[in-house]
Amino acid sequence: MKAVVWQGVNRMGVETVPDPQILQPTDAIVRVTKTAICGSDLHLMDGYVPSMVHGDIVGHEFMGEVVEVGAEVRKVKVGDRVIVPFPIACGKCWYCQKGLTSLCDNSNPNPGLAEKFWGYSPAGLYGYSHITGGYAGGQAQFARTVYADANLYKVPEGLTDEQVLFLTDILPTGYMGAEHCNIHGGDVVAVFGCGPVGLFGIASAFLLGAERVIAIDRFPERLEMARSYGAETINYEEENVFERLREMTGGRGPDSVMDAVGLEAQAHGFLGVADAVKQTTRVLESDRPHALRAAIMACRKGGTVSVPGVYGGLADKIPVGAFMNKGLTMRTGQTHVHRYLDTLTGHIQRGEIDPTRIITHRLSLEEAPHAYEIFKHKHDGCIKCVLDPWADPKDHAPVK
Amino acid sequence: MTRDHQDSRRESPQNSSPAERLLFGGLGAGLIALSLRQRGGMGVVLGTGGALLLAGAAMGQGLGETLTRVRRTEDDHIKVQKAVTIGLDAGELYTFWRDFENLPRFMDHLESVKVQGEGGQRSHWVAKAPAGTSVEWDAEITADEPGRRIAWRSLEGATVPNEGEVEFRPAPGDRGTEIHVSLTYRPPGGTLGATVARLLGEDPDVQIGQDLRRLKRLLEVGHVPTTEGQSSGRKGPMKAEAKMYDNRRTS
Ligand SMILES: [Zn+2]
Ligand SMILES: [Zn+2]
C-alpha cells in the first residue's frame, strides 16, 4: 500500500510499504477513505517532537471502512464506516472509564520513554512519534487500529466523509479548548491562532455561550474565515494585541484566552528571536511559547487560559508572576476525543456546525509532500488539506 | 553508610554536593557554548554531553549516581520497592499472585516458577541469565494473608539469596487496588556483582516497574500493547539501524 512516511527532519515522502496486519486480537484494519494533515504533523516534520524514526508512517486524522477484525472484536464489524479518534483508549483503565481517554494508562507501548520526558505516560497516539507509542499512522491506504471496540466510532447514516473526518481530532480539540475556557453567559473569549483548531475553538465558544470571540492571527484568509464563524479579529502584525484586546474589552481583558498555536509560535522582538534560536539548536528549549506568554498576559484577572496548542518539552520565560498574581486558571491536555463524539455528531447533524468549511485543499495521498509544504508555509490560502488515499494525483503547478 | 542517610538520599534528587553541581554545571554550559561553534557531528556530541551534564547538575544528580543507579542497602543488598494501581479488587489480585506460576507472565527476568507440594508453600524458580544460561533456586512462602499480603524467601543454597513481599491495599475511591512490591537480592561476596545485574538488567528499579506495568495491562486489558510487526517504511538492513530522532538535549 501507499503511505506517507517520515524520512527525517523536513522530509515527508510517499512510499510503498507492506499492508498492515492484525497483530493482536483486539485490532481492526481500516481501509482509509479520507485522511488529513494536522498542525501537529508539522511539529513532527520540523523535528520538534522527539523519538521519530526514519520510516514511520504518520497521520492521526483518518477514517474509513473496516475490512478485517481480530478474534476478540465484538462491537465493530467488517463493512462499518468509522472514524478513528487519534488518542488510543484501552477502554478498561480508570482514565478511560472517566472519559479521560487521552490519558489512558495502558495504550502506550513505550511508557518508559514518555515518563522520562513527562513524568507519567499519556495514551498512545497514532502516527505521532515513539514517545506516544510509535503506532503507524493513517496517512495511508490502510491502517491497523487497536482496541477497536473501545475506539472506532461508527459514522451515522447520511453524513459524508468530510463532514465527520475532523471528529478524529481538530473539531473535538477546538471544542475541548472552548470547554476549558469555562465560559459563562456574557463572556468574551480571545483565541490566539486561527488555524483549524482555533477556528473550531471559535465556533465552539459560541456554541457554549460566549458573547463575543476575538480571534488573533496574521494571515488574511484565516482571519477572514474566523470572521465567517462570527469572530472579531486582530492582525498581530498590524496592531499591538495586548492594547487592542484591552481596549476591545473595556479595559478588563478577555475572560478566557485560548492558545491554539502551540510550540512553534511566531513572535517579534527579543524574546521571539531568543526562542527561535534556542529551539532551533534544540539545546536549551524545545518549545517556542510566545502564544502562551501572550495568553497569560492578556487574560483578565481571575480568568482562564485554555491551551489546546501542542507543547512537547521545555519552554522558557513563562510569566508565572502574572499567572499567580492575577489568579488565573490554566487548563490543557491532548483531547479526550471519545467523550465529545456524540455531542459533536449531533451538532453536525443539526447543521449547527459545518466542519467542511475549513477545507481549502483536496489532494491525493501521492501529493502529500506538496500538501505539507503549502500547509506549513500557508501558501495558496491553505488552511486544511484533506487527502484521498485512493485518488489519482491531480496535476498541479509545483510550488517552489 | 547508614540506612537513614541512604533513605534521605533516595527521596531527594538533590543528592550531589553544591560544589559538584557547580562544577558539572559549569562544565556543561561550557560544552554547550563550544558545541554551538562546532559544525556537524562533533558539535552534536559536545552539545549533548554538555546538556546532559547541565541537566544532571540542575537535577542535583552526581555523575556516578546517574551512571549506575543501582541502589544498595547498608549491607550491600539490592532492594527494590515499586507500586502500581490496578483496577481490580484485592481478592482477584491476591489469587492471581498467590499462584506463583503466573509470575513469569509479567516478570521479564523469570523463565518459570513451579509450585511444589501440598498447599503450594514451596516453589522452584528459574531466572534467565545471558547466553542461554539460567539461575535456579527454591523458595518458600513465609507469610500468607489472603487478599492482603504474601511474602516469600529463597531457601538455603540459592546462588543469589532473595526475598520478596507483595501487599494488596484497597485504593481510595473506585481506583481498584494498590500493589506494593518489595524485593531484596543478596549478591554473593558482598559485591554488586554481575550476577544480579544479569538477573535484573542494568536497572532493577526500571525492570520491576516495567514488570508491574505489564501485570496491570495483562489484568486490565488482557494483553500488553505492541507495535511489533506493524508496517513502516523501514526496510532491509535499515530496519536494524533505525534510530530514534532525539531533540531532547535539554533533559
Ligand atoms: Zn492533530
Ligand atoms: Zn485506558
CATH class term of the largest domain in chain A? Alpha Beta
Beta-strand share of residues of chain A? 15-25%
**Number of E-type strands of chain B:** 8
Here the CATH topology of the largest domain in chain B equals Alpha-D-Glucose-1,6-Bisphosphate, Chain A, domain 4
Series of secondary-structure elements of chain A, N-terminal to C-terminal: EEEHEEEHHEHEHHEHEHEHEHHEHEHEHE
**CATH-level-4 superfamily name of the largest domain in chain B:** START domain
Rg over C-alpha atoms of chain B, rounded to the nearest angstrom: 22 Å
Strand-residue proportion of chain B: 15-25%
Task: Indicate the mean pLDDT of chain A.
Answer: 93
**Describe the biggest sheet of chain A?**
7 strands, mixed
Helix content class of chain B:
25-40%
Explain the overall architecture:
The complex is a heterodimer of chains A (400) and B (251). Chain A is of the alpha/beta class and 400 residues long. Chain A folds into two domains: 225 residues, Quinone Oxidoreductase, Chain A, domain 1 (Alpha-Beta Complex); 163 residues, Rossmann fold, CATH 3.40.50. In chain A, strands 3, 5, 6, 7, 8, 15 and 16 form a seven-stranded mixed sheet that branches. Chain A has a six-stranded parallel sheet with strand order 11-10-9-12-13-14, sandwiched between helices. The longest helix of chain A has 13 residues. Chain A is globular, with a radius of gyration of 20 Å. The model of chain A has no long low-confidence stretch (mean pLDDT 93). Chain B is α+β, with helices and mostly antiparallel strands and 251 residues long. Chain B folds into two domains: 65 residues, no CATH class; 129 residues, Alpha-D-Glucose-1,6-Bisphosphate, Chain A, domain 4 (2-Layer Sandwich), CATH 3.30.530. In chain B, strands 1-7-6-5-4-3-2 form a seven-stranded antiparallel sheet. In chain B, helix 2 packs antiparallel against helix 3. The N terminus of chain B is likely disordered. The interface between A and B is large, with 62 and 45 residues. The complex binds zinc ion (2 copies). One zinc ion (ZN) binds next to loops of chain A. Chain B: It comes from Deinococcus budaensis. Chain B: This is Putative membrane protein. Chain B: Keywords: Membrane, Transmembrane, Transmembrane helix. Chain B: InterPro entries: COQ10_START (IPR005031), ORF3 (IPR047137), START-like_dom_sf (IPR023393). Chain A: Its cofactor is Zn(2+).
